[in-house]
Amino acid sequence: EPEVTQTPSHQVTQMGQEVILRCVPISNHLYFYWYRQILGQKVEFLVSFYNNEISEKSEIFDDQFSVERPDGSNFTLKIRSTKLEDSAMYFCASSAYRGSYNEQFFGPGTRLTVL
Amino acid sequence: EDKVVQSPLSLVVHEGDTVTLNCSYEVTNFRSLLWYKQEKKAPTFLFMLTSSGIEKKSGRLSSILDKKELFSILNITATQTGDSAVYLCAVTTGNQFYFGTGTSLTVIP
Predict the structure, then answer these.
(1) What is the pLDDT of residues B25-71, one digit of tens each?
(2) Does the beta-carbon distance from A42 to B31 stay under 8 Å?
(3) What architecture is domain A1-9+23-95?
(4) Domain residue extents for chain A
(5) d(Cα B49, Cα A57) in Å, to the nearest integer?
(6) What residues have CB less than 8 Å from B74, skipping those under 6 apart?
(7) Staple partner for B99: which of A15, A23, A37, B90, CB 3.0–4.6 Å?
(8) How many domains does chain B divide into?
(9) How many contacts, defined by CB atoms under 8 Å, are there between A and B?
(10) Which of B32, B98, B99 sits opposite A101 (nearest CB)?
């Protein structure tokens, strides 16, 4: 069964460093998403991506964040100059059609710890 | 201001019990409401609801949406220990998604 994969499973970084979280969506999916979940809190939408550009982004997704689909398979989230409060689980998701009308498949997540 | 509110926050039941989880929402340009089950890590999809009054069913789980009163319920009958998880409700507007804090369900043998 096809699945979304994410690497690494756990990333530890120093405050101020840049991190890149990687995702491989399901191969025939066209819509891609990043979410984060701070420990003990709700899942929060960050950004959606379609046709090589951002479709929607939340207030959380400021200039510190960027997304890219550098090739036909990977979908990355870059966090520049990480802060302590960026520590969270980051989930990637993909869907075949626009997310409002279609199931999203979530990856297993990357736990980011900023020290 | 919370756009999606789930209740109860947590629930402990015995195997075989029936549970009802609630989700109320307040968003503009509502498109659909989704239910997810989150065990250890990633949420897994359960249902997507777009129309009022039409029950979606999968085994012992069922869900229904009321777009007039702006809420949805998720029912689980004959609960099993494997149903223990956090159940998340999310509402979409276009490509924005708003999640509730979830209901933590614990099923005791």
Answers:
(1) 998 888 899 999 999 778 998 999 998 988 999 999 999 999 999 99
(2) no
(3) Sandwich (2.60)
(4) 1-9+23-95
(5) 23
(6) B20, B21, B23, B35, B46, B47, B61, B62, B63, B87, B89
(7) B90
(8) 1
(9) 58
(10) B32
